[in-house]
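Researcher: Next entry in the queue.
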Amino acid sequence: MSATLRLLGGLALVAGLAGCAQEAAAPASTRRVFFADIQGQARGCTVPRSVSLTPGQQTESTMTLANDGGWCGITVSQPGPKPYDAGLLVQRPQHGRVHVRKVGDVTRVDYIPDARFAGTDAFTVRMVPGNPALRVAVTVQPGAASATAPAPAATPAATPARR
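Model: Structure for this entry, 163 residues:
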């Protein structure tokens, strides 16, 4: 009788778990995002959540960041979502650098301002495939790394010791 109770208990457990089954969710990303992919972002980075690009057309976007030594990035992706194969910088920023990176299922376009720069900048990246362009107007605010360091306190001139 105890074997029968164990069998019935096992069947009840299986039936209970089957009742908890959910519909299959969308397939999970096959690309991993590592800690190094998100490390170093500027603390004051404000960008649109995601930018949709149209093949063959230019899309305008904005970015505001504090110049604290970190980067600020805008994410774009192809339908699927999947990252673009490459990005070609067709207009360079005057006061910073741009890096195009694949991060998981998206492509991230990162801007890093020059040290101590505050003001406006702009750049344009053309993505492959599909040839869409992303033009970004950037506003850089002063941050900890861009503030002018105070001058060191003057030290009194050393006087020779008398003997």
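Model: Confidence is low (pLDDT under 50) at residues 20-26, 145-159.
Researcher: Noted, moving on.
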